[in-house]
Amino acid sequence: ALVRLEKTLRQVGRDDEADAVYLERQRRERLQSWTERSYGEWVFSALYGTLGNYGVRPYRLLVFAGVVVWLGALVFQLPGAVVRKDKLGPDALLPTQLSRFDALALSVCYFLPIEFPLEDQWVAATTPLTVRMPFTRRPVRVRPAAIANFVLRTAGWVVMPLSLAAVTGMLKVNN
Q1: Calpha distance 105→109 (Å, rounded)
Q2: In whole angstroms, what is the distance from residue 60 CA to residue 156 CA?
Q3: pTM surpassing 0.85?
Q4: CA 57, CA 55: separation in Å to the nearest integer?
Q5: Using CA atoms, how far apart are residues 21 and 6, in angstroms rounded to an integer?
Q6: Angle at 139 between CA 134 and CA 145, to 5 degrees
Q7: Which of 44, 70, 91, 100 is 20 to 30 A from 1, comparing alpha carbons?
Q8: Which backbone phi and psi does 129 adopt, to 5 degrees?
Q9: Among 70, 37, 33, which residue's Cα sits nearest to residue 49?
């Protein structure tokens, strides 16, 4: 019933209302997949709904990607968070501090699921750093390599295909 209503609304040019019907149908299908114990389908649907709003004005993907890249840049800007790959001397990995731009660029490099030449120069340090949280002043230990490889790369591998699917309309099927 919702599929026909959505199709009818699109045919008469009421796309905003059709989008609302589509989102309601997606919500119901997600709940049904939970009830039917199709947990893999439910996880994907919940993730796509939360991050990409099921392809309907998927601005959340941009916000999520921006926040993750920004947090990565904050970590990479810390002293000792990255090391330069120096293939010439015995000190193969020398700790350093990146500028804001380079930290942001490295964060983007880790986020995007393709290799960039910048990663040949800089790599996230494996040694933990102690950072004081801004409002509580509590010390927290951060491992830049874990942030780079788990948070940034994993988020990139999730967000980029969802973004592509949202932009192309692959996952938004109108029957």
Answers
A1: 6
A2: 14
A3: no
A4: 6
A5: 6
A6: 95
A7: 44
A8: -115, 145
A9: 33
